[in-house]
From TrEMBL, chain B:
PANTHER family linked: ANTI-SIGMA FACTOR ANTAGONIST, ANTI-SIGMA FACTOR ANTAGONIST TM_1081-RELATED-RELATED
Name of the protein described by the UniProt record: Anti-sigma factor antagonist
Signal peptide range: none
Family recorded in the similarity comment: Belongs to the anti-sigma-factor antagonist family.
GO MF, any single term: anti-sigma factor antagonist activity
Source organism of the structure: Dyadobacter fanqingshengii
STAS domain ranges (all copies): 1-109
Superkingdom in the source lineage: Bacteria
Taxonomic lineage of the native organism: Bacteria, Pseudomonadati, Bacteroidota, Cytophagia, Cytophagales
SUPFAM superfamilies (alphabetical): SpoIIaa-like
Length: 706, 112
């Protein structure tokens, strides 16, 4: 090793027996260098900076080293400190400067600040382990090792239209005792359930926030249930570069980085991509009443959007708004995503309340937001999926108009609402349904169907089961008198509010879930399923369970037996989609025959073939995809006919004829009992009557022409 | 922590006792390097190791990489259940052959 040491890696200064020297300005954060650690941090307005060093877990620091003035380059303070035990080290900073909130400055050198570029955070090492509330430095910056052996792993780069996304919560997935895993609620436990994910037929997991957050944030006793209200979902970031230690079985050993990387590597080995739900719109520091953890004390005016009076703009609905289009903050976001893509092999990112990322420093929407543009053109992120939640809590709704640069896809909230309304039997939806199943060309004409992430349920709002079991939200357990959560659920309880013994109602609910899954899987664009919907999970009508570390959010694995018919159906409908390239086009339909098959790529039908009823009272629509046009005519697939009936009565649908030698086979009929509602690929029975099909009331039928 | 190195024909056995943490890991690493200089087939006996921190695991990873680059083999002996659990969760375990007794380790390397 001695031969590696450059002549400049020798100390020039000493204080309390600790040796140090001028450091490197880049990279920001703390990095290992021969015999020492390089610390680098920036602040535009600080007048002084001190490095604070702790032995892991100790109450008091063992050293505080003020950066000599000559160690500052521009606004960057950097220093190499020698002979530190980097495994046992925790570090932070004190920043001195003005405390003038009306001018945007909130410096307070009595507070030890966490490094925004820390790669791991100590202090919340095990989920809900009681913290020491008197800790002078609760969220402690740590270093991580960079020796993980990825072997030959590489992000999968699956074409986005071929993904079936599964939105899940790390802890919620396996914390329920019925999961039968060794380390419930952890990254390791997800790894032990990979076989289940494969069985379900998904090929991308989207993990709800895994950046370090504090589950204790705003915790209080639940006035209704007496339990503890916590931050379960984690949409409140403490540090953007650190995985949540409490999600790792080995968090108490400080090995959360290795555990998460091992999970990513194993998922990749099984053909499953990993997408992260990332929250760059705000931080855990809250508004002017919140705690100072890091950003506020380092450079308040740089990191946050502030009103002219120095208060926090609140476009996120959570207290503050990260100043994403400030050039310095923009670079931090870019550095962060590059780090996750390169060091964790992450396949894609879903940006929470992404409309905020397109606002300028005063909150006004930008026509050409530099952050979104930088991400879209970044060479390191070039193959990552970028998905926007294209709205924010400040009223900016950009579904269809999110600045995309040919890269960005978005959660299609309109898809969700239209399908929900259609399924509950609203009239006048047929035109929108035609848009939904085509990847909404009216919204994404230039961007193609792959811009549309299709979903009917996600973590926000009702589960798929609750969508058909509740007319109203029931959020009493959240302790806010049922005032929180959205009211625009477009749900229908099928006749009884909540759980019931009524066999007819329960059967209808199961059928509606199968209708929803069917439509989702035959729609152009990218389907996303909420974890648990494949087994009919309920949250008792609560549509905003962000604060519950209990059965409301824990997947009950016994539902696999209770709702075996839903699981049976879900496993097969995902495979149906993946078996048929005609359902996964990169480009919009042309509505004409451009390969000479005699059929247009897509044709619409109704109860009469070739006669779709787009009138305002219609609840019926059918469409046919011509197999010769699969993947723009480059692949030969079966033809597929889908009939949707949201009328309460059964209706005959006249079938369009197939070319000579081909005939219609039944793949899906949600009106039938389990076992006859969906058939395995290649085992679809041939229809006796090739001329028409009786589609049950509130049912979906899928036929395969071959 | 105490480390003993013995040679059994062309196989080197590294026997560790005590705790391997960030304070003792550098010495463990020094000894492991000495052993690797002697042989490309190594048995590391951890039967008498009570606690091993991530620094200890990282020495094992370093050994594995060195040995692999020389097309040698490394066998671990007497790894406690807790350490095995951490190794498994963090992906380290796949790199090693783990046996219960030192003689099993030597036998495993000899048959190769």
């Amino acid at each position: 090793m001695a031969t590696d040491i450059r002549i400049d890696y020798y100390p020039t200064h000493e204080q309390q027996g600790i040796k140090f020297r001028r450091g490197h300005v880049l990279p920001f954060g703390a990095t290992m260098v021969p015999n020492g650690i390089n610390f680098s941090i920036y602040s535009s307005e600080a007048i002084d900076c001190t490095l604070v060093l702790f032995e892991r877990g100790e109450a008091e620091p063992f050293a505080e080293i003020r950066f000599p003035e000559e160690f500052r380059t521009g606004n960057v303070y950097s220093m190499i400190v020698f002979d530190l035990d980097y495994e046992r080290l925790e570090y932070g900073y004190r920043m001195d400067g003005p405390f003038k909130p009306e001018e945007g400055h909130r410096f307070d050198k009595s507070i030890i600040l966490s490094d925004p570029y820390a790669k791991a955070i100590g202090g919340r090492d095990s989920w809900l382990a009681k913290p020491n509330w008197d800790n002078i430095y609760p969220y402690r910056s740590r270093l991580v090792f960079e020796d993980f052996d990825w072997e030959n792993d590489h992000p999968l780069e699956t074409p986005i239209e071929d993904l079936v996304i599964y939105e899940m919560h790390v802890r919620g997935f396996t914390q329920h005792p019925s999961s039968n895993v060794k380390n419930p609620g952890t990254f390791a436990a997800i790894r032990s359930k990979i076989a289940y994910l494969k069985e379900l037929g998904i090929n991308c997991v989207e993990l709800m926030p895994i950046y370090e957050f504090d589950e204790w944030e705003n915790s209080k006793e639940n006035p209704v249930t007496g339990g503890l209200i916590v931050n379960f979902w984690g949409y409140s970031t403490v540090n953007f570069f650190s995985p949540k230690a409490g999600y790792a079985a080995t968090g108490k050993f400080g090995m959360q980085v290795d555990e998460l990387k091992t999970l990513v590597k194993e998922l990749h080995k099984n053909g499953i991509e990993v997408m992260l739900d990332v929250v760059f719109n705000h931080t855990a520091e809250g508004d002017h009443r919140g705690h100072t953890i890091s950003f506020r004390g380092i450079d308040n005016k740089t990191y946050y959007m502030l009103t002219p009076e120095g208060y926090y703009f609140n476009f996120s609905g959570t207290g503050n708004t990260l100043n994403c289009n400030n050039p310095v903050v923009r670079n931090m976001v870019l550095d962060c995503l590059r780090y996750w893509a390169a060091d964790y092999h992450i396949d894609g990112f879903r940006f929470d309340l992404a409309a905020i990322l397109g606002r300028d420093q005063n909150g006004a929407p930008l026509s050409n937001p530099p952050l979104l543009e930088s991400l879209a053109y970044d060479p390191i992120l070039a193959k990552c999926k970028l998905v926007a939640e294209a709205w924010d809590a400040g009223g900016l709704y950009q579904v269809g108009s999110f600045p995309a640069y040919g890269r960005w896809a978005e959660w299609n909230g309109k898809y969700r609402d239209s399908i929900r309304k259609f399924l509950k039997g609203d009239e006048g939806l047929v035109g929108e349904i035609a848009q939904c199943i085509q990847g909404w060309p009216d919204l994404y004409y230039y961007r193609g169907p792959t811009a549309s992430i299709n979903f009917i349920a996600c973590h926000d709002g009702f589960t798929l089961y609750d969508l058909f079991a509740y007319n109203e939200k029931h959020n009493e357990a959240n302790g806010e008198n049922n005032n929180d959560g959205g009211n625009d659920n477009h749900s229908w309880n099928c006749g009884v509010e909540g759980e019931t013994d009524d066999a007819f109602v329960n059967q209808l609910r199961h059928k509606q879930i199968k209708n929803a899954l069917s439509i989702l899987m035959v729609s152009q664009g990218v389907p996303m399923i909420l974890s648990g919907d494949e087994v009919g999970v309920t949250k008792n009508g609560n549509n905003n369970t962000y604060c519950h570390d209990n059965e409301l959010n824990w997947l009950d694995w016994s539902l696999m037996e209770k709702n075996a018919d839903i699981f049976y159906f879900a496993q097969r409908i995902t495979r149906f989609r993946r078996a048929h390239p005609v359902l996964r086009s990169r480009t919009h339909f042309h509505h004409r025959d451009y390969v000479g098959s005699g059929f247009a790529d897509i044709t619409f039908h109704g109860t009469q073939a070739w006669q779709p009823d787009f009138s305002s009272s219609s609840r019926c629509i059918a469409f046919m995809l011509d197999g010769a046009h699969a993947k723009s005519g480059t692949i030969q697939d079966d033809s597929i006919y889908i009939a949707m009936n949201s009328h309460y009565d059964a209706l005959y649908y006249e079938l369009p004829p197939l070319p000579n030698g081909q005939s219609w086979h039944l793949a899906v009929n949600t009106d039938m009992p389990s076992g006859e509602d969906i058939y395995d690929i290649g085992k679809e029975p041939k229809l006796e009557d090739q001329g028409r099909f009786l589609v049950g009331g509130r049912a979906t039928v899928i036929l395969v022409g071959k | 922590m105490k480390v003993t190195i013995t040679d059994q024909e062309e196989i080197t056995v590294v026997e560790v006792s005590g705790d391997i943490d960030s304070k003792t890991a550098p010495e463990f690493e020094r000894n492991a390097k000495l052993a690797m200089d002697k042989s490309k087939h190594i048995v590391i006996d951890l039967t008498d190791v009570g606690f091993m921190s991530s620094a200890g695991l990282r020495v094992l990873l370093m050994v594995y990489r060195n040995i692999r680059s020389q097309e040698g083999k490394v066998v671990l002996v007497g790894v406690s259940e807790e350490i095995q659990d951490v190794m498994s969760t963090t992906g380290f375990i796949n790199f090693f052959t783990i046996v219960e007794k030192p003689e099993d380790g030597v036998a495993f390397l000899k048959q190769d």
